[in-house]
Each structure stands twice: as C-alpha cells, then as structure tokens.
From TrEMBL:
Highest taxon of source: Bacteria
Location in the cell: Cytoplasm
Name of the molecule in the record: Helix-turn-helix domain-containing protein
An example molecular function term from Gene Ontology annotations: DNA-binding transcription factor activity
HTH araC/xylS-type domain boundaries: 195-278
InterPro entries listed in its UniProt record: AraC_XylS_family_regulators, DUF6597, Homeodomain-like_sf, HTH_AraC, HTH_AraC-typ_CS, Tscrpt_reg_AraC-type_HTH
Keyword set, alphabetical order: DNA-binding, Transcription, Transcription regulation
Gene3D superfamilies, alphabetized: Homeodomain-like
GO term, biological process aspect, one: positive regulation of metabolic process
GO cellular component, one term: cytoplasm
Role of this protein: Regulatory protein of the TOL plasmid xyl operons. XylS activates the xylXYZLTEGFJQKIH operon required for the degradation of toluene, m-xylene and p-xylene.
Amino acid sequence: MTSTLAQFPQQAAWQRNLAPFGYRQILPARALAPYVQHYWELALPAAQQSPHSELLHHDGGSSLLFQLAGELNINGVRAHQGVLFSPTAAHSAQLSLAAGVQVFAVRFRPGMGAAFWRCAASEFAGEVLGLDGAHYLRFDLPAVTEQLQAAPDLPSRVALLEAALCGALAGSAGIASTLPQTLALLRASRGQQPLTQIVAQSGLGQRQLERLCNRYLGLTAKQFSRLHRVAYSRELLKQVQPEPLADVAYGAGYSDQAHFSHDFKSVVGLTPGQYLRRVRARYHDVEQADAATVHRP
C-alpha cells in the first residue's frame, strides 16, 4: 500500500499561498482513495513574525489535523493534546497557524469520512474537537496522535495513519451505495437546480435524501447545495476582471443581489465585496492563476 506525492495544478489559492511554508499534498493509497481526498503537511518557520491565518471553505468534507509542533487553532479552538477534528460545517472557518507550527493532516471526501465514524455525522457536525472527539472515531485517536508525533518523516506518518484508517475501514459498515452519486448531483447543480429535480434524478425520496445527508454530512441537502453555490460564486469573484456583483449573483443563479449577499455572508462570514477586497489584498496573482476554473468537482 503506497501513497503518492501529488502536484495539484488546481489547488485552492490558500493552499498555494502556503507553499513557502513547505505545504505538500499526498495522495492516499488506492484502498483509501474513495474515502480520503489527500494528506497534507506544512511547517511555519520559528522566525515567522506573526501568526498566519487562512479561511477554510467547507465543501462537505472533514479533516483531522495533527499538531506536531507549535500551535494552531480553528475558530479559536486550539489543538487539544496535539489534534483537531474538524467535521464538515455549513460555514467557512478560520485556520490560525503560529510561528514554528508543524502540521500533518488528512482530508476526507464529502460524506466519505463517515466510514470512520461510530455515529451519524449530525452528532458532531459544525463542532471543532480535540481528543475529546476520539470516541466518535473507529480507531484509537490518542495512540495514533502519539505515534504520528514520534514518526521521523512524512512517509512514516502517512503509513501510520493509513494503517489505522484501513483497520477502521475493515470494521466499518461502509457507505451507502447511493451517497456518491447523490452528492455528485448536488455538487453539479451548484445550488441552482430545485431539490425536487435532484430527488427525481437520484431515485431517492425527499426523506431518504435528507436522512442520507444527515447521516453522512451532518447537513441538510439545502445546506450542502448552498456550500457549492457559494463556492461557485467565490470562483466567479476571483476572475481576473470580475463582473459587477449583480452579474456575479445572476451567474450563480440568484434572482437578486440581496439574496446573493445574504447567502454569501452566511456561509463565508464576509460580504461578496469584503471577500473580493480580501482576495485582492492577500493573493494577487496567486488567485488569478486559477481564475479560469470556476467550479471544482
């Protein structure tokens, strides 16, 4: 079982913005690829003069972040005993990295991390947990955290975590066979297609769809769709020469700018105009490099 160092031409701008800190992504072994999107690591220099922060935009996925050195927090919640469990949420989050921090993390695909949970995602969705979230997982999180902190290098850490994940997967009931196709339909619609049409295409009933989303995402189908509608809006805003906000709203399927601004701020925590100014101030050419990609599956 081997993982592969990945070079992603379509990384999010915040990820490419961390390249000076040794940010790397690692693809999972084949057996875990349906569940794990990638692993990543970074290390901020101890001489870094101030904490580094980034917005993390949820897409229905979830993450485990292991603090190997230094300090990090998400939304002000610090890594407790070396780990942060960040389930999916209906709102963007703020990741803060202190000077000297070293982080190793795993990113689970939307809904697919549930193969490693002991309960429905709705029981902890939207929370940020430390080792107090260990009882939700199908593997020994404290022991794995300790082993990862003692591992000598990145390949060793990936191998240790993948062994734990594969062990957990062996004892799991797996994922509902209808989940991947249903989530793909919701993502592809970018929130612009009525849920009744999604239900008809998926072959599920409305209640079945909601139970599926509740169990594996901890979100409603409407919340999941809105995450991807706003994600599409963010990409439109990051065009080299963005259209007026009213045109961006129309392009994202909103009937008026007020509804667009309300949805955007409720998810991102910023108005579209504030987000655009932040992007221009922080990323410049970094954002422009992926301006042609307006929707990532």
